[in-house]
Design goal:
mainly alpha, Endonuclease III, domain 1, two-stranded antiparallel ribbon, 11 helices, disordered N terminus, Adenine_glyco, metal ion binding, DNA_glycosylase
Length: about 210
Amino acid sequence: MDGVTETEQAATGAGLVVGDDGRARPLWASVDPMLRAYYDTEWGLPVRDEHGVYERLSLEAFQAGLSWATILRKRAAFRAAFANFDPDVVAEFTDADVARLLADAGIVRNRLKILAAVTNAKATVALRDEGGLADFVWSFQPPETPRPRSHAEVPTTSPESVALSKALRKKGFAFVGPTTMFALMEAIGMVDTHLVGSHRRGTSGVWPGE
């Protein structure tokens, strides 16, 4: 390819796109500035606090069947609607709050997902007696992480995400299927599914670089 460096050729061949800043990213994070910023500064970095894990668990549940870009664009509205995802507050939401949320055009108005967020807030509060949501989720961290070289090689579930899904359901959580839990594990740094060659690969501090 004329005018393209060997590094850029390798990145392109691996399903990566080299941006104007010289950094290689997957296609999904290379076009939309919002997704690019999310990829560069947040996705895959460790989240180990209850509030952070509860928020991301909630957003991943709302994302089911939709694009992540849709959820990200509505994130500020979600935070306003759900009391900044404070589990103690959301756990006390009433039928009136559910009705309010169903009328809020700024969020995803899905009754089952809204009810799941309330249910999961209650389960999060209850789980404090056993060490808390964050430690519970992180106890399912796998012994190794995938090393995908293309989008097709990125898994959507794992034995650990299946086990986490089952364990959370037993604790009273809802909308925590294996695929959603794997997406959560990716988002909070429990696994590193950045493509090999991406500038973010190995930057979480959880997994060694390539």
